[in-house]
Amino acid sequence: MRKSKMWPKMQSGEVVKCAMLHSNDHRLVELACISGFDCLWICNEHTANDWSKIETMILAAKAHDTDILIRTERGSYSQLIKPIELDATGIIIPHCMSYEDAKEIQKITRFAPIGLRPLNSIGADSDYLTTGLNDYIDHANSEKKVVVMIEDIEVVPDIERICALDGIDMLLYGPGDYSQSVGDIGNFTTNREVLDLYEQIPKLAAKHGKMAGVVCSWDNCGDLIDMGYNFLNIAVDLVGLGSYYRDSIEKFNAITDSRK
């Protein structure tokens, strides 16, 4: 059963680099792995990905021994555990709204004695039970990572209690939705509440031995490292492709315009 490679890096003080994919092509997964990312973040919250595509992307990442996290939909318990059973490194759960919500996530995603995750012991995450059941349960509770997104004003008073929960491994800050939650949508740079939470999350996570992550830009990447973030998403597939397409058009137009 595969172990996470990025978690030991973060625990030793390294900052890991992640790429987010909104597309569902396994070739882009392989390209990101070959390029040197520590982790891939596959979005199943805002996209039309289907499970067979997600399974193929997980297999592509595993072929390159690269960690892969699936951002889930919110809904039934199976939407949370299915990516784990397909042998993703872990899951990213959007909009954790309270301590009680985090406790329910803990219950669904962890086996006893931590939670009450439904037991299916013959999937890819158990190596199809070629090892013993107890080894599988221990591996699942320790190696499958559960990341909750902090992106709503309602959850702020509960952040430290969430950090203290066994089985919650990382807090991932979502400043976009949080800026909307505090009534200043899109203001990531000057809104005091948004900036304060940038600083609060890594401090509370570190206090309880947990990791802290966020999406960054080149403008704030260094500041976020200094704040103590362990996990930075530094690339998005569609942003990169869009930039390449626009640059190609601009260069082509410059060549053709010079010949008019």
CATH architecture: Alpha-Beta Barrel
Sequence of strands across the biggest β-sheet: 1-2-3-4-5-6-7-8
Strand content: 15-25%
Q: Which regions are unreliable across 5 or more consecutive residues at pLDDT < 50?
A: none
Average residue pLDDT:
96
Largest sheet: 8 strands, parallel, barrel
> What's the CATH H-level superfamily name?
Phosphoenolpyruvate-binding domains
| Helicity level | 40-55%
How many beta-strand segments? 8
Number of helices: 11
Shape: globular
CATH structural fold name: TIM Barrel
The CATH class assignment is: Alpha Beta
What is the domain total for the residues?
A: 1
Estimated radius of gyration: 19 Å
Give, in order, the helices and strands: HEHEHEHEHHEHEHHEHEH
Our measurement of the CA-to-CA distance between the termini, rounded to an integer number of angstroms, reads 62 Å
Q: Which structural class best describes the helix and strand composition?
A: alpha/beta
